Amino acid sequence: MKRNVKGRETGTTRLVDALGHVHVRADANARIVCLVPSITELLFSLDLGAQVVGRTGFCAHPKPAVRKVPKVGGTKDFDVGKIRALEATHLIVNVDENPKADVDTAAQFVGNVVVTHPMGPEDNIALYRLLGGIFGREREAEELAERFRTGFRAAVATTRNLPRERVLYVIWKDPWMTISNDTYIARTLESVGWDHVEIGSERYPAFSLDQIAGLDVDRVLLSSEPYAFRARDVDFVKQQPGAAKAIVSLIDAEMTSWYGSRAIKGMHYLAQLRSSLRDDQR
User: What are phi and psi of 165, to 5 degrees?
Assistant: First the structure.
């Protein structure tokens, strides 16, 4: 087995990230920079907060503990020089959130780059185990896995008998943008009976509000990030002729797009939201 900087082998356990890279167990002096907001929260949930030495400005949880961790920029425009100055031994990134070219630059001096890419809610269990295995938090990882399994099963059971709805999940305006079905968000929505409609072939396609009428959409979900939709946006969309037949609702994006430990709360939130909205009037 390949041995990385400041690491030791973990016997027969293979710690494989989203790109197929095999990692070894880090020692207690690992210095972690995380460029993924939801995974920064997960690291704290795994009792690794003391080893997190860098984060993005969007890594907002858990409060207030995360505020003590130095910022290295944003998810898309992080400062490679700051990461180097922090003497990070491990860099945690995500395929969708972080530019590959900049990650590759950081990889020249960070010995261990852990690439993540959860594609559905049940991928959280593997994510917990990967990070728990690398950083010696196997027990904490299994506790999170059990909590997630319980929450996921409960959410599916709670919503199983509700009529399925066709939804359009909106992440941006000017231009208006949505998600493809090949995303973590779409699969999470699907697990509670919200089937996302496909628009085009891009991962995050642009669309016009006029298109909604032709998509046979039951509900338009306006997310709280990356664009922070508000009640006035709900009213605006409702007034558009193309959306006249759809119910328009706000949704907390952290509960739909944040994998990691937040997904445990997320499944409960989605089940409760789905149940509370079932009798909405158009």
Answer: -125, 145
* Predicted pLDDT at 80: 97
Going by C-alpha positions, the residue among 137, 141, 147 that lies closest to residue 128 is 141
Alpha carbon of residue 264 to chain centroid: 12
Tell me whether residue 68 is in a domain. yes
In this structure, what DSSP letter does residue 4 have? -
Q: Are residues 168 and 111 in the same domain?
A: no
Cα 42 from Cα 118, distance rounded (Å):
13
Using CA atoms, how far apart are residues 164 and 111, in angstroms rounded to an integer?
47
Residues making up the chain, counted from first to last? 282
Residue 98 sits in the same domain as residue 26 = yes
Q: Count of domains in the chain?
A: 2
Mean pLDDT of 240-258: 94
Largest Cα separation within the chain, whole Å, is 62
Query: For residue 71, with 0-12 CB atoms within 10 Å meaning exposed, 13-18 middle and 19 or more buried, which class applies?
Result: middle
If one counts every other C-beta atom within 10 angstroms of the C-beta of residue 93, the result is 28
**Would you state the pLDDT for residue 10?**
43
Residue 136 lies in a domain: no
Predicted confidence (pLDDT) per residue in 93-129, tens digit: 999 999 999 999 999 999 999 999 999 999 999 999 9
Kindly report the CATH number assigned to the domain that includes residue 218: 3.40.50.1980
CA–CA distance, 35 with 76 (Å, rounded to integer): 9
Phi, psi angle pair for 234, to nearest 5°: -60, -45
Tokens of 171: 């992440």
Backbone angles phi and psi of 156, in degrees to 5: -65, -45
Which pLDDT tens digit goes with each residue over 199-213?
988 999 999 999 998
The region, left, alpha or beta by phi > 0 then psi within -120 to 50, assigned to residue 3 is: beta
Whether residue 82 sits in one domain with residue 172: no
* pTM for the model: 0.92
Domain holding 184, by residue range, is 161-276
